[in-house]
Amino acid sequence: MKNIVVLISGRGSNFKAVYEASIKEKWFDVWGVKIVGVISNRPEAAGLEYAEKMGIPTAVIDHKNFSDRESFEKVLIEKIEGFGGELVVLAGFMRVLTPLFVNHFKGRILNIHPALLPSFPGLHTHERALEAGVRIHGVTVHFVSDVLDGGAIIGQAAVPVLSTDNPDTLAQRVLSKEHVLYPRAVRLVATEKVRLEENKVVMDLESSEQLAIF
Ligand code: GRF
For the purposes of burial, counting CB atoms within 10 Å of the CB of 123, is it exposed (0-12), middle (13-18) or buried (19 or more)? Predict the structure, then answer.
């Protein structure tokens, strides 16, 4: 799973974190792993500009031009494979994926979700964590299944919830952990240290230690 395609919809800070780690840690020289393309469903996604600046091939596939999810996904699959993509990294990609897409890349799609799953799947996770009064919040990287935010968990990072927090301050603190966890998880899956086998995540002790961040 050496060739990574990143899917974004907006800012792209997680994409940037993964890309920067791949350069700094020389993923290509050591394992032959690289980001071969970035695809956005929104033409205005800021992450596209960064990708272009870094010389990474980009594409826009605007979901609004398709009448249903499956026809959008068919084009998305073609584009990913056109880039030579083997591992799909969702980084703030704001589209629900159907079984068509998920089964096509089974065990080869990662997502990052800003909460400690299985708590708070879906949107507005920071507001909901504050509302629930949890003392520890965080972020999860998981394999994508056809249940929204429901796939097998790869890694998690914990973040304290402070009495002074509002959704923005909490989101900031979670985001800085996202940028540590996601590059690590992507590297371990791309190098097949971590894999999905019969819907369970399999990894060695060393990887498991790296994927639980406190
Ligand atoms: C992140 O909080 C990520 O966890 C969620 O969407 C946000 C994307 O941010 N899935 P960015 O585009 O990577 O900056």
Answer: exposed
Cα 26 to averaged position of ligand 1 atoms, centre (Å): 24
**17 CA: nearest ligand 1 atom:** 13
- 143 vs 129: CA distance, rounded Å: 23
CA 42, 61, 176, 122 dihedral sign is positive
Region for 26 from its dihedrals, namely left if φ exceeds 0, alpha if ψ lies in -120 to 50, beta otherwise: left
pLDDT tens readout for residues 115-169? 999 999 999 999 999 999 999 999 999 999 989 999 999 999 999 999 999 999 9
Kindly report the backbone phi and psi dihedral angles of residue 210, in degrees, each rounded to the nearest multiple of 5, phi listed first: -75, -20
Domains in the chain, ordered, with CATH?
1-105 (3.40.50.170), 112-214 (3.40.50.170)
What do you get for the CA distance between the two ends of the chain, in Å?
28
What positions carry a catalytic annotation? 113
The pTM assigned to this predicted structure is 0.98
